[in-house]
Amino acid sequence: MMKNTVPSTKIDKKSLFAGLSGNILEWYDFTVYGFFATVIGSQFFPDEDKVVQLISAFGVFAAGYLMRPLGGVIFGHIGDRSGRKKALLISVMMMAIPTTLIAFLPTYEQIGWYSALLLIALRLLQGLSVGGEFTGSISFLVERAPKNKRGFFGSWSTFGVFGGMLLGSGLASIVTSVLSTAELHDYGWRIPFLFGAVIGVVGLYFRRGLSDDEHFEKMKEKNKSQKTPLAEFWANHKMQALKVMLLSWGFGVSVYLIFIFLPSYLHTFHNVKLDDALSAHTIALIVLMLLIPLFGILTDKIGRKPVLLISLIGFVALTYPLFGLMFENTFMAILMSMLVFSLLEAMFQAVMPALMTEAFPANVRYTGLSVSYNFSLALFGGTTPLICTWLVKVSGGDVWMPAYYLIATCVIAIITALFIPETFKKELD
């Protein structure tokens, strides 16, 4: 008995690190690129217009996002046909290699427009890998977890997302504070991308020793003669995909609006000191990370739907007053609002990995998750800052529009949640 118990614990820990390492790298890169977008614009695009440079830099970033659905299809097929391990190994390498190569790219001054084309090519490769990374890691973690811990294990994938965001912002802050502006433009912006290689090597180390579990191996043999995962998914699982897409809409908007867009929004439209907004954001991010695994445990105790509905109803009821509190323009008011948002977001982040994984059978799980989640994130998640800014503009400067948008997406998610079954006691095939 002792021999069986000990290895099991070790495998679970290694699975945990293997699953979340890719998410850390993905969001580390996301954050670093955002922090250095101004510098990247000046390095890879002509210097006549600073605004055009910034738009070009973010345009390259957005191009990577458009590749996510295609990446979801490709990695979904690999994961469902050849195994989760193979898909996760390829995805972490396809994130780490381009991130590292960006650190060595020649600039526009050196090779002209070829530099921008190389940057775009690397971002497109990253976009493909991102399409399979998050959804692959959550299916891997939830499938490996004991039945009564699937919510807890799955929640670590989203913990990794915010861990990467925190790591990226921390390293970017160190680089910008230590180096002068000239040094930053000369070589400093390359350092954080180079560090991405370290995260990639760590992720590769943890994933190389893994193997697909025996249930997947049996399922793979059984389904060899059946139609492709994408065809099977499209033929029989469109309703599950629609529900996941609608829930992912609110899921993506809440993350991008609160933890990506909000600091810049408060600074731009309410004259809040950027230092105050970013400080409150960092504290809230740490609290969010600490709460996610705890709410993951709660979903295993009382179910997925109660935690999901509490989070969504909380967003609908509290978003308007919390925005009003932030508009007081004091650090404490912003911090208190961000902490309440962190509490609500932690519940949402904790419940979604297990809930989405349990929505699909094993033979199309990777494909179903990757296609439905990535299409929703590409259409609605990554576009959140752009949509919110556009809503403020077309409404004649109504600064409440981002709050209305968040509330609307959460109302849609609540209606969707009413039609999904409770799955926390379900046996995974």
Walk me through what this model shows.
By secondary structure, the chain is an all-alpha fold. The protein folds into two domains: 1-221, Growth Hormone, Chain: A; 226-429, MFS general substrate transporter like domains (Growth Hormone, Chain: A, Up-down Bundle), CATH 1.20.1250.20. The protein has 19 helices and no strands. The chain has helices at residues 2-35, 37-44, 50-66, 68-81, 84-102, 108-111, 113-144, 150-178, 181-188, 190-208, 214-222, 229-236, 238-270, 274-302, 304-326, 331-357, 365-381, 384-394, 401-417. The chain is globular and about 60 Å long. Residues 1-11 have low confidence and may be disordered.
List keywords for this structure.
Growth Hormone, Chain: A; mainly alpha; about 425 residues; 19 helices; about 0% strand
